[in-house]
Amino acid sequence: MKRFVAAIVLGLSLTGVAHAAIDTYEFAKEGDRERFRELTKELRCPKCQNQDIADSNAPIAADLRKEIFRMLGEGKDNQQIIDFMVDRYGDFVRYKPALNGKTALLWFGPAGLLLGGFVVIAVIVRRRRGQRAETPSSLSAEERQRLDQLLDKPQE
Amino acid sequence: MSVNGKRWLLVAFIAFVLGCFATIVVTQLKKGDPSELPSALIGKPFPEFSLPNVQGDKTLTKADILGKPALVNVWGTWCISCRVEHPVLNKLAERGVVIYGINYKDVNADALKWLAEFHNPYALDIRDDEGSLGLNLGVYGAPETFFIDAKGIIRDKFVGVIDEQVWREKLAAKYQALVDEAQP
Question: How far off is chain B from A151, nearest CA to CA, in Å?
């Protein structure tokens, strides 16, 4: 029981750590707070690559949050802010990468694989069906006779 | 199509898919560290800046780093691997490689002490306390090293420690190409 409680306490303390990136920003407009949240959720931290910059405690993520805050204050729209980041850090910083030549594989790859899987299944199914249909009639009378012969006398 | 034909088609298709995967995996492995990001700035001009130098007696701008192909090395005293890289940079500077330093988000006194203690390989020391130039360069750690040509276009970027082997095998040729290009 003691162990169980300890595990829970430890677990709770860990969740605290995971959401510890808190800054105090005063937004001029109420809508900006929401946009700030959206943007920091959509942009990936370049250093700690599996966190968005809202979540990350890395200094670089804090810098990028500060920069987003500054740009919101300047009245930049979301696209301008995202372009600013992509210009510097590449498509990588977006969790939703733009569709272009470099990211086409990323966007269409899974659908392509799925389609490939369907093709494979279709081919297998058709082949099996074809086999079943062909087997009885594929032997001519002569062949069947010879087969019977072979089955009767497996060793000569 | 005969049964055999279909089977071959299927085998060929599966081989093709596996081949595609193998190619992707091999190219990714060859690239080395997967957390290394390609720079979005290659082929673009070095960003404008106006920052003091580390020594505190000059203001440096982009015009100061133009004219010669050079390495622009981002470092800080807080960066442990920069300490490993530093002697290599000293050697390169001795051999005549032009290196500019960006002292990134550092305490000025620490930076001065470091340069006095370990020797200063940098032709110019840009002091980027706020990380504003670093942000415009898409820096996400240190050390990072940019290769610029004589016109100040970023031609390449290397993330991580430059050691003797990396320089010999990967980077020396890149730098030499920029030097050759500048002297027709």
Answer: 25
| Pair B54, B115: CB distance under 8 Å | yes
B14: distance to nearest CA of chain A, Å?
8
Residues B61 and B102 occupy one common structural domain: yes
Q: Which of A98, A120, A138 is the last residue of a domain?
A: A98
Terminal-residue alpha carbon distance, chain B? 63
In this structure, what token pair is assigned to residue B150?
């004589």
* Residue B7 lies in domain: 1-32
Task: Say yes or no for a CB contact (<8 Å) between A86 and B13.
Answer: no
Rounded to the nearest 5 degrees, what angle is found at the Cα of A75, between the Cα atoms of A69 and A79?
Answer: 80
Searching chain A, which residue's CA lies closest to the CA of residue B130? Answer: A63
The answer to whether the pTM exceeds 0.80 is no
Count of A-B CB contacts under 8 Å? 56
Could you list the pLDDT tens digit for every one of the 184 residues in chain B?
556 667 788 888 889 888 888 888 787 666 666 666 667 889 999 999 999 999 999 999 999 999 999 999 999 999 999 999 999 999 999 999 999 999 999 999 999 999 999 999 999 999 999 999 999 999 988 899 999 999 999 999 999 999 999 999 999 999 999 999 988 7
Give the angle B131-A94-A44 at the CA atoms, nearest 5°: 55
Whether residue B107 sits in one domain with residue B16: no
**Rounded Cα–Cα distance for residues A114 and A117 (Å):** 5
Q: How far apart are CA B118 and CA B87, in angstroms?
A: 8
Q: Six-digit token pair at B149?
A: 């040509």
Q: Residue B7 and residue B180: Cα distance in Å, rounded?
A: 56
Answer yes or no: do A33 and A65 share one domain. yes
Note whether B132 contacts A: Cβ–Cβ < 8 A: no
A135–B contact, CB cutoff 8 A: no
In contact, B149 and B181? CB cutoff 8 Å = yes
How close B78 gets to chain A, by Cα (Å)?
A: 12
